[in-house]
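Protocol step 4 of 6: structure prediction from sequence.
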Amino acid sequence: MFDEIEFKNNIQSKYITEYGAEIGEVFCRIFERSLNNDILDDLFNEIEKFGFFDREKFDKKYLVETNIIESKNAMISAIIKESKYNEHFMTWEKGSEFLEKFLNQFDRIENVYQNAYWEKSTSNNSYKDELDMMGWSGISKYNYYDYGFVIISERKIGILWFGDDS
């Protein structure tokens, strides 16, 4: 059984800077789709229950549709580092393990939406497939900036989101 809170806490517990400060917030939810509604309408109906997102900012125009193959490297990159400042908290392999645990909760994944733009990392300390976040549209209530992914499968919608106040 997948525990969203434990998953979130496991990732978040790694988010400690070199000088010992905890940064970042991870938000993770998976819920059943209503097959009668538009996918994003289901998402918007559910997010109001969470208290994490600002419904006024959470607009369809801020979500870019991609496929799971294109999105995996961005999702792993978001898990392993604080993406705005490119500070790594775990290895690519560990981030990949976390992502697979999350993605294994879905049946056939149809597409992924994200609110950030990612490019191939040019940092010296980056991994081969790592991406850097180049821009985002913040849509959470309490974070200075946030970025994340909405995973759509045949029967479920999942949210994996990251935010920070700095």
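Step 5 (inspection) to follow. The helical segments are 4-12, 39-50, 68-80, 92-103.
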